[in-house]
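Suppose a colleague, Dr. K., hands you the sequence of a protein chain of 294 amino acids and asks what its three-dimensional shape might be. Before reaching for any lab equipment, you can write down a predicted structure in token form. Begin with the sequence itself:
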Amino acid sequence: MAPWLLLFLSTLQPFEAVEPHMGTLVRVKLYAADERQARSAFRAAFDRIKELDAILSDYKLDSELNRISQNPLKISDDLFRVLAASQKLAEQTGGAFDVTLGPVIRLWREARKNNRLPDKEALREAGARCGYRKLHLDATNHTAWLDEPGMQLDVGGIAKGYAADEALAALKRLGIRSALVAASGDLAFSDPPPGKRGWKIGVGSSGRVLELSNAAVSTSGDAEQHLDADGQRYSHIIDPATGMGLTSGITVSIVAPHGIDADGISTAVSVLGFERGKEFIERSFRRDEVDMIQ
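The predicted structure, expressed as tokens, is then:
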């Protein structure tokens, strides 16, 4: 390494900031030359996440995601990327990942709020309006549309990972090379901190410590969002095949090149279960691309 580069790296200082976005607290840690550069970088990262929330949120009635209907709608590059990645993962997993579960997810949100299981008939009716094959994308015209009225999309299982990726990209455009973005259980990393091999993070029930750079990790489980009813814990993660919250108690961490990959895969593997999830990963990715940690 050139002496001037070593000198430059030695002058970088760590800075950290936290803001509420996408229904959680987002933490950004970065290395910058001074406080002024750090402030500008934080603003760019958080503004990018805020922009994506306005596009991808199913909570915001006027979001671009919520405007998709039976009529073909020309959509932004951001929404198209997220939906295309979601549909690819749905195909790869036989529907274990499904962003059309919005009607069912809303019933489970109410169930957690009211502390009681959703009505079975309401779940059946909501499930009839779901199915990833009912969402269509046209790459040529950059449009999306749904087969039926009353369908609702929910990209909560992949959006935070994509937002973390995009926040890192915003930082890089401002010359910030070493950074970490954490949105709840989704973390994305750029270059290592100065003088380090990577960013250290503990994952899995064993507390295994990884050193990661230019990678992402996502952890899915029922530790934070769940419903305890009739002696059973139901996760906020829904099995598309049954419309029920998972009861396996599985917690899984996925390491992948990008946040959008790690986030979506961790959700899908939670639904598939450890053995089927492992088979899916071994079948679909190289070992140095995606790793699963239980």
